[in-house]
Amino acid sequence: MLRAAPVRFATALDALHTVFGYDAFRGDQAEIIDQVAGGGDAVVLMPTGGGKSLCYQIPALLREGTGVVVSPLIALMHDQVDALVRNGVRAGYLNSSQSAAERAQVERAYLAGELDLLYLAPERLNSEAVKRFLERGTIALFAIDEAHCVAQWGHDFRPDYLALSELAERWPGVPRIALTATATEATHREITERLSLGGARHFVASFDRPNIQYRIAPKNEVRKQLLQFIRAEGVDGEGRPAAGIVYALSRASTEKIAAFLVQNGIDAMPYHAGLDADVRRRTQERFLREDGVVVVATIAFGMGIDKPDVRFVAHVDLPKSVEGYYQETGRAGRDGLPSTAWLAYGLHDVVQQRRMIDESPGDLAHRRRLSAHLDAMLALCETVQCRRQNLLAYFGQRSDPCGNCDTCLEPPAAWDGTVPAQKLLSTIVRLERERRQRYGAGHLIDILRGKRTPRVDQYGHDSLSTWGIGDDLSDQQWRGIVRQLLAQGLLQSHGEYGVLGLTEASGGVLAGERTVQLRTEPERAPRAQAKRAA
Ligand code: ADP
Ligand code: ZN
């Protein structure tokens, strides 16, 4: 596994040619490598597929000693190290999945100065014994991958990362490079502070992925919508079925959706952490090696899967944050060819996620954070402006309308929904006043549409003054209105049953002080558009 003869390179370009077989650096790579190889610190924000790995691998080859790489993805270390070793790099890792003998071999190589790169899980650096061990060798640099995990405000905080703040004091002379593919300005600041990278150079690449077309559709019959989408757009340049990933929230739904797709002639397979390791490995291998395989997965799938020709990423459930959405959709089109990110979401998603937040363990601050993440995701879903502009603005980057997202291609019409919103909100007010009771969307819509149900009879809700005043709109239109009011913060949903209540902002609507603009939504599932950027 380890090669004895040390390899030294005159220049970064030399290492790029000889070890990796590439002709030229991309984007900021050359400058980043210069900075770190020269002993300076760096913070690198670069989208997935941008080529972050070389930014620490090459400096590690150029400097004396071993580059220590902190990465939370233990499952990937093995693959990463294998790939490096195949390229003739002396690389190894230390993690809990190893035998004592394997570990001893890597440790010996490190101490003998025979390792170019050493991968470690962050919790290793929490251990005093591991730190003492590292002190006995020569460290060329520290690379902190997935650096957004240090940010408590971020979407993927890992407490083990906090210990990395110590690296600066303990190894003051060793350059450090922190890298991430998702960071808002707030997260970027947190990375800089917590990792003591105040003196670092910052390299912020554009987060735009211009070849990805973003589409977000209201959900009605999600499986049919998904099937229609895959048939129309899940194809490569020649019209053959293309590889794609469908993300769903639960393990059960990945299996059901995969089965449904298979019944309809799509080569689909489920993937989630509950499946046998063997099954998962085979699924992953088929996805990587064969053409046109669709994997229906929970977010457990995709981390570190380097498949360049994924033509689409579809979400049938709402992601929990814009960061998550960006990371997951970013797995499409790494080859730069036209690809699609398609998301369907509905009222149920909003209610379900609010409930999960209400019930989540952790303190109030934690729930607020989750709530803020969800709100940003909802704002992206409901925007009548360019999706890409909204997405990039979230990461603090300005851009013009893109011409390659659904709102740019088919600008949504807006309508004045003030009156229906008032009808709905005043129904809630009346019910709360009379019985001090709250209800979910279904029952409220029944009342507004004057639908006689056992529950309506039981409570005598047909005597409410708002009974039947909303029968000019369909059930589906009402559900769309509820969903949009939730997203706009004019309604809130609570608890297991998603009962609806007013917010501070609702008062203004009821008092006629503010109007409500809503997106016009198609009655039926919209036909998937085969429009793609040339
Ligand atoms: P990231 O970690 O930013 O997602 P990687 O480091 O995995 O990206 O790189 C993405 C892909 O691009 C890899 O297949 C890598 O080998 C390739 N790559 C990186 N830099 C270059 C380059 N300068 N020239 C050609 N290919 C590159
Ligand atoms: Zn756009």
Automatic annotation (TrEMBL):
Annotated Gene Ontology cellular components are: bacterial nucleoid; cytoplasm; replisome
Which reaction is catalysed here? Couples ATP hydrolysis with the unwinding of duplex DNA by translocating in the 3'-5' direction
The Helicase C-terminal domain, residue ranges = 222-378
Keywords (alphabetical) are:
ATP-binding, DNA damage, DNA recombination, DNA repair, DNA-binding, Helicase, Hydrolase, Isomerase, Metal-binding, Nucleotide-binding, Zinc
Q: Where is the Helicase ATP-binding domain?
A: 33-201
The answer to whether UniProt assigns keyword Isomerase to this entry is yes
Q: Please, one GO biological process term?
A: SOS response
List, separated by semicolons, the cofactors it needs.
Zn(2+); Mg(2+)
An example of a GO molecular function for this protein is: 3'-5' DNA helicase activity
Recorded family membership: Belongs to the helicase family. RecQ subfamily.
| Name assigned to this protein | DNA helicase RecQ
Source organism per UniProt: Agromyces intestinalis
Q: What is the lineage of its organism?
A: Bacteria, Bacillati, Actinomycetota, Actinomycetes, Micrococcales
Gene name of the record = recQ
Q: Which stretch of the full sequence is covered here?
A: 152 to 685 of 765
